[in-house]
Specification:
Elements lengths: L1 E7 L5 H11 L5 E7 L4 E9 L1 H11 L5 E4 L7 H9 L2 E9 L4 H13 L3 E7 L4 E6 L3 H12 L3 E10 L27 H4 L12
Antiparallel strand pairs: 1-3, 1-4, 2-3, 5-7, 5-8, 6-7
Helix pairs in contact: 4-5
GO molecular function: metal ion binding
Family: Belongs to the HIPP family.
Protein name: Heavy metal-associated domain containing protein
């Protein structure tokens, strides 16, 4: 929100000037409109005027080529958004859901795994409990189960923590070792390969 908005729009006559002035006067928050036909500029003044709404109004009522000169909207900081996604909260939610058979448990697991943000689902039919891990709102889990399966769910427990979504595990580590070979064939060294004592040595005729 601001007190003054400057726009650029092409106007070639007094009729254009009147049309621009008419479409902006009376708009929410607008108190004064100054139209400069020669320089193709429009100044809108008022209390708490939204520049984006003013621009949208002018493009809708007059010309799609209207441009916002000031204030210049701040560009979205994608790095901050990415950081927020990376630092999203990982939740472990324990739900109480009635399950009559293994089929009910399988259906709950199948549908919850389709929900966005859910990582793992562990249903326990005997205790009528479901453990859900993921970056998801617990209340939405209850609503989702009611909507998809027609079952009432109750939140028994909920734990939160920081989850780094973009964390990459190293492909190799010192703890990794090549598995031993189970082949029955023994490796023959090159020196033994062509030895006279080796019965499998190559014979040159």
């Amino acid at each position: 929100m601001c007190n003054e908005v400057a726009l650029k729009v092409y106007m070639h006559c007094e009729g254009c000037k009147d049309k621009v002035s008419k479409c902006l006067r009376g708009f929410d928050g607008v108190e004064d409109v100054v139209v400069d036909t020669e320089n193709h500029k429009v100044i809108v003044r008022g209390k708490n005027v939204d520049p984006i709404e003013i621009l949208g109004r002018l493009r809708k009522k007059y010309s799609r080529n209207a441009q916002l000169v000031s204030p210049i909207p701040k560009p979205e900081n994608k790095e901050d958004e990415k950081y927020k996604e990376d630092q999203a909260e990982l939740k472990v939610v324990v739900l109480k859901v009635s399950m009559h058979c293994q089929g009910c448990a399988d259906d709950i697991k199948k549908y919850l795994e389709r929900m966005r943000g859910v990582l793992t689902v562990e249903p326990n039919m005997e205790k009528s409990m479901v453990i859900v891990r993921g970056i998801v709102d617990s209340s939405k889990l209850v609503q989702y189960i009611k909507k998809r399966l027609g079952k009432n769910a109750e939140i028994l427990k909920q734990e939160t923590g920081q989850a780094n979504c973009c964390k990459k595990e190293p492909m190799w580590d010192n703890k990794w070792h090549c598995p031993p070979s189970h082949s029955s064939a023994q490796c023959i060294c090159p020196n033994d390969m062509f030895s006279d004592e080796n019965p499998l040595a190559c014979c040159i005729i």
